[in-house]
Structure to design on (725 residues):
């Protein structure tokens, strides 16, 4: 739920996808910058948070992992209730996992409409040679359902930062639109601007994305 | 038992439904056949009467006490019969306890005279008699008393906390009190959802006020809201937890039966990544079970959430020890389901409903507690819908296990029974393990003792043999002291055979 004040946003993001597509590796890489590491300090990788600062606005990201096994499929709605974004992960070497993503998309659109920002993520691009899901097919599909498509590799730390940053920006836009449509959207001046500057206090999340204006 | 269900009944006579006072409104069995208004009047009267009685009693006792004190000073013959005092002691202590619970402030004077000295014994008897008549007179308009210790404590804490906020604090207190009073007045006619809406509206209004009027930072507002939630939910708990108007209780029973029927589900069927043979893991599992059961004893929604969170942390620990990597949701959810099945927590549905209805929503939506709570909801939903497919069993097997005709363990392989038996009960394994360790220790100790003994024997033997040898040698070479050999020319200087000593001769040359 986005905070009404417009100063701090709290977003809930659910992580969906079959088991073994690398959901856990993805978030651990993003939040701890580690991969298959014996030194991972966190006890668990099912609920992780990340604090970001985008265009001078604080964003609290809560990432909810979900159980991906088929028998827990029916529990999905309990998980993604009230979420602002969903990251649907598939394994580029596994055609079935991509089919699974399609099911999730249908379900999410049916239950939550267009208010949820969808990201379709093809993980494990370090295994490009064994790819079974073609880039064209995946990107075409993502576009057809109004989702963004990303290629990532948790192992090589590729594309993950961009994925989460993009998602945050999209969720902020959605929240601002909603605010304005509710009539009390007297949010500060930076809402109309397209240029985005990232001021980040955490070094690994600092990805400058070409901005020119600073907001107080 | 609710008003509604009685109205729906066909065979109930109309006159039985009306308030016994004849005011024209419907009555309720829970209020002894009175309507809500008349019941409140009665209740107030009875309460008032009791307070007055208590005061009268206190005064009377004080007067008697003074008289007794005077008389005991004038003559020491007023000692009471001992048996009497013993008889009344038990009831008296109960009475005192009850009084303390009720209103500590009011009874301080009374308490002073209740100190258990033998001199006041006649009054004790009196007190117990009075108390009995009390109870007969007013059956129980004092339901609210039982939990008043905790309520009092929470109220005090709340006031203490608000003092740190100065002016806003007073206002918060005023609003909270007014809200609790208004809930008390209308609670009887509302459904659970309406109650929930009232409380949520109050939360929303209060946090908006705090944000806008008092310009609090969001962290501070959160902190204040936590305290507000604690205060009002402790006060309202009794009337809004599992309310009569909802079917929570029925659901509780259904879930309990369901979990009991699923007692045969094993770790393997759920693919739980936890090995209970490891002592630390089984420890964590036990702690997790304790925490989830403890949830029912808390009153504040956030405290209940804290129990779920603590349970989850123990689960994560168990998984971490077993797998040596951080747990993902794929590991966590099955384990949580297993824990819920093992624990069968009391009033699970009621607790979940209560948290959903009355928890401050900001906690439930995005926070860590919210995540674990959502998982618990998922676990319960899974248990309710669980079928053969979700356990990777054939429908026939599932049916057989459910009906109790077969048990999965014995069926699988009779040869493997002892192993799986020990797997089921890690405590037994532990005991067995400890026993074998003990017996091996005993064996080793025995060896040590034997070794020590043989060493001792060897030592004595050695000592003896040395002595023997010495003896032998002594025997073989007896020490006979021979006369000392004299110097060659000590005595017989005049020995003939010796040539005469050389004499110096002078040669001329």
């Amino acid at each position: 739920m986005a905070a009404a004040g417009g100063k701090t946003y709290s977003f809930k993001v659910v992580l969906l996808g079959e088991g073994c597509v690398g959901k856990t590796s993805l978030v651990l890489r993003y939040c701890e910058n580690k991969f298959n590491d014996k030194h991972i300090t966190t006890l668990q990788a099912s609920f992780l948070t990340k604090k970001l600062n985008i265009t001078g606005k604080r964003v609290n990201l809560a990432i909810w992992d979900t159980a991906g096994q088929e028998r827990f499929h029916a529990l999905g709605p309990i998980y993604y209730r009230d979420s602002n974004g969903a990251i649907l992960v598939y394994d580029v070497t596994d055609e079935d996992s991509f089919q699974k993503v399609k099911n999730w998309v249908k379900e999410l659109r049916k239950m939550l409409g267009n208010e949820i920002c969808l990201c379709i993520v093809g993980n494990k691009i370090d295994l490009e040679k064994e790819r079974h899901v073609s880039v064209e097919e995946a990107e075409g599909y993502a576009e057809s359902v109004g989702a963004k498509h990303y290629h990532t590799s948790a192992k090589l730390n590729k594309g993950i930062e961009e994925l989460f940053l993009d998602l945050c920006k999209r969720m902020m836009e959605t929240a601002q639109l909603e605010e304005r449509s509710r009539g009390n959207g007297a949010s500060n001046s930076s809402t109309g601007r397209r240029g985005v500057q990232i001021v980040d206090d955490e070094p690994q999340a600092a990805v400058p994305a070409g901005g020119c204006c600073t907001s107080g | 038992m609710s008003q509604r269900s009685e109205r729906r009944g066909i065979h109930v006579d109309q006159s039985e439904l009306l308030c016994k006072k004849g005011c024209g409104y419907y009555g309720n069995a829970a209020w002894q056949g009175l309507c809500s208004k008349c019941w409140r009047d009665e209740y107030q009267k009875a309460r008032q009467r009791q307070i007055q009685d208590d005061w009268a009693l206190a005064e009377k006792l004080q007067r008697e006490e003074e008289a007794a004190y005077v008389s005991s000073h004038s003559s020491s013959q007023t000692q009471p019969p001992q048996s009497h005092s013993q008889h009344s002691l038990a009831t008296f202590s109960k009475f005192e306890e009850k009084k303390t619970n009720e209103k500590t402030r009011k009874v301080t004077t009374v308490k002073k005279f209740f100190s258990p000295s033998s001199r006041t014994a006649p009054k004790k008897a009196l007190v117990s008699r009075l108390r009995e008549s009390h109870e007969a007179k007013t059956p129980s308009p004092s339901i609210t008393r039982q939990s008043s210790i905790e309520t009092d404590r929470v109220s005090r804490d709340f006031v203490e906390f608000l003092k740190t906020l100065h002016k806003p604090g007073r206002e918060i207190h005023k609003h909270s009190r007014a809200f609790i009073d208004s809930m008390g007045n209308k609670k009887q006619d509302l459904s659970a959802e309406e109650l929930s809406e009232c409380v949520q509206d109050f939360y929303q209004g209060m946090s908006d006020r705090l944000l806008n009027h008092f310009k609090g930072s969001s962290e501070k507002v959160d902190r204040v809201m936590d305290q507000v939630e604690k205060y009002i939910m402790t006060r309202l708990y009794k009337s809004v937890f599992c309310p009569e108007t909802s079917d929570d209780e029925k659901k509780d029973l259904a879930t309990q039966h369901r979990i009991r029927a699923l007692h045969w589900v094993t770790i393997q069927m759920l693919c739980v990544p936890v090995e209970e043979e490891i002592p630390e893991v089984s420890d964590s599992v036990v702690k997790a079970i304790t925490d989830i059961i403890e949830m029912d004893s808390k009153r504040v929604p956030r405290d209940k959430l804290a129990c779920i969170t603590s349970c989850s942390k123990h689960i994560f620990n168990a998984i971490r020890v077993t797998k040596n990597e951080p747990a993902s949701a794929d590991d966590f959810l099955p384990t949580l389901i297993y824990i819920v099945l093992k624990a069968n927590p009391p009033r699970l549905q009621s607790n979940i409903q209560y948290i959903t209805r009355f928890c401050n929503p900001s906690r439930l939506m995005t926070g860590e507690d919210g995540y674990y709570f959502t998982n618990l909801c998922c676990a319960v939903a899974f248990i309710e819908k669980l079928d053969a497919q979700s356990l990777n069993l054939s429908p026939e097997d599932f049916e057989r296990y459910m009906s109790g005709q077969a048990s999965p363990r014995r069926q699988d392989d009779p040869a493997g029974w002892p192993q799986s038996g020990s797997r089921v009960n890690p405590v037994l394994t532990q005991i067995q393990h400890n026993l074998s360790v003990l017996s091996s220790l005993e064996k080793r100790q025995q060896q040590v003792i034997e070794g020590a003994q043989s060493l001792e024997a060897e030592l004595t033997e050695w000592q003896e043999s040395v002595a023997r040898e010495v003896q032998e040698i002594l025997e073989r070479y007896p020490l006979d002291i021979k006369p000392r050999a004299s110097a060659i020319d000590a005595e017989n200087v005049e020995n003939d055979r010796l040539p005469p000593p050389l004499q110096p001769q002078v040669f001329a040359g």
Remarks:
- DSSP finds 22 helices and no strands in chain B.
